[in-house]
């Protein structure tokens, strides 16, 4: 338990799935972790504390600027600083022909998935700049940020936007010792995918058949890539979109 000893990390979307798996992995590697979600992950954080790790829970809607600002402040109040962040919070929309997509659905997906990443980076970077320290940020895009998909135009647009933000901001901060990258998960065993399997089983079955590795990803497999991107082992990786998709986009 030394890889992340004395480090502090924020993980959004930490109530379950990839966010929770990442928070758990960082904690086990020695980091102090702020678990953040729109539905406050109190029990998830308490489970880590009960296991002997350093963790707090924070309720935050990442599309709300004041809430994001407070998220970073609460993390620093609890642990004294910030080193890393995994901006994972995101939502999916039901499959819908573009002409039938309602404006409020478009706004919600873009506000959480793209604006939320921008807001999180803004206040995480402000804290790192205030500290004058190096650090790393990993944003969660998707294989949907690398390709299109019928019926999910706004989701794919939002995840393409995450990569544009990641690459551009990475270029701003690389010389300051702050590395920013993105992960592009494929079809992962998460509550969101479970819901898609239940409500869109035919479409999802066809999608899974196209995965070369022949199975869904486990949330822990994405978490391990996030940990690596934040670690000194990835010290020369900047502005990249790392696919974790079993070969789907290859």
UniProtKB/TrEMBL annotation:
CDD domains for this protein: SDR_c (cd05233)
InterPro entries: KR_dom, NAD(P)-bd_dom_sf, SDR_fam
Signal peptide: none
One of the Pfam families matching this protein, by short name: adh_short_C2
Keywords tagged on the record: Oxidoreductase
Domain Ketoreductase: 7-174
NCBIfam families named in the record: PRK07231.1
Name the record gives this protein: SDR family oxidoreductase
């Amino acid at each position: 338990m030394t890889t992340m000893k004395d480090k502090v990390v924020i993980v959004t979307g930490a109530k379950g799935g990839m966010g929770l798996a990442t928070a758990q992995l960082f904690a086990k590697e020695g980091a102090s972790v702020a678990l953040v979600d729109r539905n406050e992950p109190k029990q998830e954080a308490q489970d880590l504390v009960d296991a002997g790790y350093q963790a707090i829970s924070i309720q935050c809607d990442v599309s709300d600027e004041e809430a994001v600002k407070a998220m970073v402040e609460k993390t620093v109040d609890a642990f004294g600083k910030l080193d890393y962040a995994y901006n994972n919070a995101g939502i999916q929309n039901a499959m819908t022909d573009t002409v039938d997509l309602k404006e409020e659905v478009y706004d919600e997906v873009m506000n959480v998935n793209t604006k939320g990443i921008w807001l999180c980076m803004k206040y995480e970077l402000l804290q790192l700049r205030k500290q004058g320290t190096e650090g790393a940020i990993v944003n969660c895009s998707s294989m949907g940020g690398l390709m299109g998909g019928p019926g999910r135009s706004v989701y794919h647009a939002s995840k393409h936007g995450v990569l544009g933000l990641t690459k551009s901001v990475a270029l701003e901060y690389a010389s300051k010792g702050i590395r920013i990258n993105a992960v592009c998960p494929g079809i992962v065993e998460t509550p969101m995918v479970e819901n898609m399997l239940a409500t869109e089983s035919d479409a999802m079955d066809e999608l899974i058949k196209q995965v070369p590795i022949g199975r869904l990803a486990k949330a822990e497999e994405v978490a391990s890539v996030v940990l690596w991107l934040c670690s000194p082992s990835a010290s020369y990786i900047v502005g990249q979109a790392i696919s974790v998709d079993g070969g789907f986009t290859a």
